[in-house]
């Protein structure tokens, strides 16, 4: 392997490791009056929403609020998606 490819490979390994360390420090929690939002725990206390209940909110019991693909969001489990289809 030439020096150039070695440097590129090492850079990719280091960047990948840094990303996983950043991701692992983020905790996501439900927020909002009806717990309809999935947000970073550090921001949850400052969030204000209207207090309403929509039928699709019941589907959150089949999901998990977590750090997915670089952001806090609800996990789209098969049960969650099936529940949403029943609401619409």
Structural description of this entry:
This protein is an alpha+beta fold. 41% of the residues lie in helices and 18% in strands. The relative contact order is 0.13. β1 (28-31) and β2 (37-40) form a beta hairpin. The strands form two sheets. A two-stranded antiparallel sheet has the order 1-2. A two-stranded antiparallel ribbon has the order 3-4. It is built from three helices and four strands; from the N terminus they run αββαββα. The model is unreliable at 5-22 (pLDDT under 50). The protein has one domain.
Question: How would you concisely characterize the structure shown here?
Answer:
The chain is α+β, with helices and mostly antiparallel strands.
Write the layout of secondary structure elements.
Elements: H1 3-24, E1 28-31, E2 37-40, H2 41-44, E3 65-68, E4 71-74, H3 78-87
Antiparallel strand pairs: 1-2, 3-4
Summary keywords:
single chain; 88 residues; alpha+beta; two-stranded antiparallel ribbon; 3 helices; 18% strand; flat
Structural class: alpha+beta
Oligomer category: single chain
**Can you give the mean pLDDT?**
80
The helix tally amounts to: 3
Give me the count of strands. 4
What is the H/E string?
HEEHEEH
Question: Could you name the ranges where pLDDT drops below 50 across 5 or more consecutive residues?
Answer: 5-22
- Ends distance: 56 Å
- The helix content is 40-55%
Spatial order of strands in the largest sheet: 1-2
Largest sheet, strands/sense/barrel? 2 strands, antiparallel
